[in-house]
Amino acid sequence: MDDRRLAREWALVLQSQSIAYVLLFALEGWVLRIASNDYQQAVDAIDIYEEENAHWPPVRKKDRPRHKSSPLMIMSLFGMAMFFFYVTGPVSRGAAWFTHGRADALLLATEPWRMITALTLHADAKHVLGNVISGSIFGSMISRRIGPGGALFAILGAGAIGNTLNALYHLPDGHRSIGASTAVFGAVGLLAAVQLALDFGGRADRHRYGLVDFLAPVVGGLALLGALGAGRHSDLGAHGFGFASGVALGLAIAWVMRRQNARPSTLVQIAAALSAFALIGGSWALATLR
Q: Which of the residues 116, 142, 183, 185 could staple to 283 if both were Cys, CB 3.0 to 4.6 A apart?
């Protein structure tokens, strides 16, 4: 035989059956030589070994629905962020936009659309580029699991919920915030939760995995939260609530996907993406009409 690894495996099979052998390399390849009276026993042992290992290693079942990598997510995030920054400018020049669009705890009840409009406002170019780069990375990873349209809608939802919770936390004191970083950390939470739920939630062999295996995605997300969201001027409340909102939303999405046992259709992806754009446009329409 030409396969040295297979020859050594067969040799171990013979050894386990206490069959004497000699393994050597000849012109025809690797050869196992045994006594003639052990031939049938050796053949039977090797046949049983080959039958038992015919499907080894097992093919890993793809528990999580996967979508092809698409530039749609990156292009959408980059396009939206740069468009709004071009229109509103930095905080030093776009006072009116920031007055009407920033998240404000004191205006939560009367102007809830601010929890979405605030995600599109950035203090300066460094702020917007940082969020675009981070959001594109995590958004692209999420889109491979739940699709680009679903990812856009989920990230927007996590950011809006995170802003709402952050505003509620700061009541009755006033608290103002801007920037897409709440949505970015929502994306981190989404990724951790979806990976946790879809990877381990339905595995038939999940009893083989310990606590560390189950918590690794969430711990990784918390590590990113600490590494990326703890700057001197960072809004830790917004980042933390964004991450928590992403985790909760990600678990809900994974639960729905498991029950349907199918990847969302193209029509659903398009509807989700259009809904996200409509929510942003509608929120700004309400903000400018006030």
A: 116
